[in-house]
Design goal:
The structure is a single chain. The protein has about 300 residues and is mostly helical. The chain is about 60% helix and about 5% strand. A hairpin with a 5-residue loop joins strand 2 and strand 3 (about 180-185). It is elongated.
Amino acid sequence: MEEKVDAFLHYMAAERGASKNTTDAYRNDLTAFTQFLRSQLVNGQDPKDALDRQLILRYIQWLNGKQYAKATVARKVAAVKSFCAYLLDTGDITIDPTSSVSSPRAPKPVPKPMSVEEVDLLLQEPLKGTTAEAVRDAAMLELMYATGMRVTELVSLNVDSLHLAPAPAYVRCLGKGSKERTIPVYEHAVQALEKYLDESRPALLKNRPQTALFVNRRSERLTRQGFWLILKGYAKSAGIEGRVTPHTLRHSFATHMLRGGASVRDVQELLGHANVSTTQVYTQLADEHLREVYEQVHPRAR
């Protein structure tokens, strides 16, 4: 069985393009599973013969008994499901023992937004610079927080995606499923964008033709990785603790909108979520904030 695991890992890396981190995680999970499988064998039984639905259910029960986090159990079971699907494809087994076994559901992690004060610190950071890149960065961060766009949507914007004048200003972006949505843009972001378009973008382009809104010093469209590194640098220099990613700004936008009184449906539309249940995860954060305010200000709650 260990040889089958090695063949599966090779398949994942060579044919499916899995990263080293992914294959390492699979190896750890499947090593634990094969050890459990061997512990269940009786009278020299072939491991493949013991690989049935009941064994998979016992394995899940064993994992739960180890008091792993639900997300960990879900990951380990997913690894076994992928491995069994591979064994079925290669003809090593004739029935997938995991096909009728429901995957444990990992709880959706509650997003960790930045506070309004932390966002203010972040947005002020590029204003300390005077370079063309600093002006661009100020515009990008303002637009990201103004709209809650995904980083892919942000770097995919073209100049004609913006409508800054006459007011009201808005941006058109293409989201998941090629669905276009229109998002309002507040005045601070408009001012930052106008400065970037008038001063910084021409300096970065050096008269080269380019449709992309945000460009790097090589006059090329800025990449997702490029934006992430820029954001990481400003978060660090602003002294913001904790991990700040492009999605952190999206989380912060959604949470702050809900705390300010926006409806879940409105935030769903702004974020481009296909299902309102995806947006409702943010209401927990808004409710927690409301509870904190209540306990601080209600005379009988203190």
